[in-house]
Amino acid sequence: MKNPTAAMLVIGDEILSGRTREANAYHLAGELGKVGIDLREIRVVPDDHAVIVDALRVLRASHDHVFTSGGIGPTHDDITADAVADAFSVGIEVRDDARTLLQDAIGRGRTLTDEHLRMARIPHGAVLIDNPVSAAPGFTIGNVHVMAGVPAIFVAMLDAVLPALEAGSPMLSRELRFEVGEGRIAAPLRELAVAMPDLGIGSYPFQEGPVYGTNIVVRGTDADRIDHALERLRGIRSSLD
Amino acid sequence: MKNPTAAMLVIGDEILSGRTREANAYHLAGELGKVGIDLREIRVVPDDHAVIVDALRVLRASHDHVFTSGGIGPTHDDITADAVADAFSVGIEVRDDARTLLQDAIGRGRTLTDEHLRMARIPHGAVLIDNPVSAAPGFTIGNVHVMAGVPAIFVAMLDAVLPALEAGSPMLSRELRFEVGEGRIAAPLRELAVAMPDLGIGSYPFQEGPVYGTNIVVRGTDADRIDHALERLRGIRSSLD
Predict the structure, then answer these.
(1) CB atoms A18 and B41 under 8 Å
(2) Does B115 touch chain A (CB under 8 A)?
(3) Best label site of A10, A14, A135, A152, fewest CB within 10 Å?
(4) What is the Cα–Cα distance from A209 to B124, expressed in whole angstroms?
(5) How far is the C-alpha of A187 from the C-alpha of A108, rounded, in Å?
(6) Lowest mean pLDDT, pick from A79-83, A201-205, B68-72
(7) ipTM field
(8) What percent of chain A clears pLDDT 70, i.e. is strictly above it?
(9) Is the domain of B90 the same as that of B45?
């Protein structure tokens, strides 16, 4: 059985302008690997309604899940919720349960501002994602999970979303270090990759002072097959001495 | 006159699996901003020939430049050059000038291996990009600039490529710190964004201990307009006291 697939859509001018270093993709990739959902694409797009809608339509049609990050705050550049509503061709308005979350957060005695209410606008048919950090919720609609860009909130929202998703076979990974350059082991590695096509075999060169080396990563869902590949890699390493 | 646009294509299973934190997009975004080329999209795809070819075709048709990162080493998982050749429907073979670079790097007396020669395979019609770090060249073909994923080499190759590209108006950026949450300033910010549609006005919440604050970033190519926006922002800040 194949693992479910996923794409990530990062929304934000601040990433594309070089102001901000993107911080959520690495976390998402690791967490999805643990539950056996294969992350197949990451896309970063600007705060541009038409571009976000197009990307959502393409990605949700080609993957089992889409995780978005960014653009759900109270300001004029927070346009993700409207784009998601358009991508699903549904309406969007302030929802009572979301409004209550925000009211509880600021205290019963105070009046919600237009900006608070902007964060309670939820596309029709969506399910709220809990935000234990700052109350303003994310939401899931269809196969799209809409989460905040602030890393602490993204992490918390992902924790709330993942347990409900159908898991696949967790991706396992082992690594072997070679203190030779990639070129010296490329030929036997290629043989190994051909012999074990069910595994992903990656080759990552590094330099540590005067040492040129290569880390070989073996990935797959079957621990025995990975062990077998590691044995063959150790054989390759011995033959270099 | 509009600035040239660009997309980045990051190629590598190691990013999508969560093994490696992507490290080149932030650098590229900053460098492109300095020379006035607008980065409009970043896409991360796996080591999958058909997926890379499709992404290259889409991105090169919709942007003035495409910068790729990753997959040009000597091992079986380095498939970028072949995918680029396919995306341009041109042949690919070992090229004499690339072979000479590698021969010089290992020394005249030694014999190039198949793995060395793999790094000298260049699509027809491409121009080599110098690699002062480890000799194996990148290349430019049409509007696609193919560079290494190893950060030190990516940086060096970008330094070699950028001076030759037509520059736009450098993107200027100034920032003002508000020690209030986004909600308190969302309304006047929206007014400012409407009044000065030539500028990008971004709102980025932060938390430092007990302080909830918001950094407002104003971006544009006209320094006077940015100064004017900053003045208005200072006015908004004063009115909060």
Answers:
(1) no
(2) yes
(3) A152
(4) 36
(5) 69
(6) A201-205
(7) 0.92
(8) 100
(9) yes
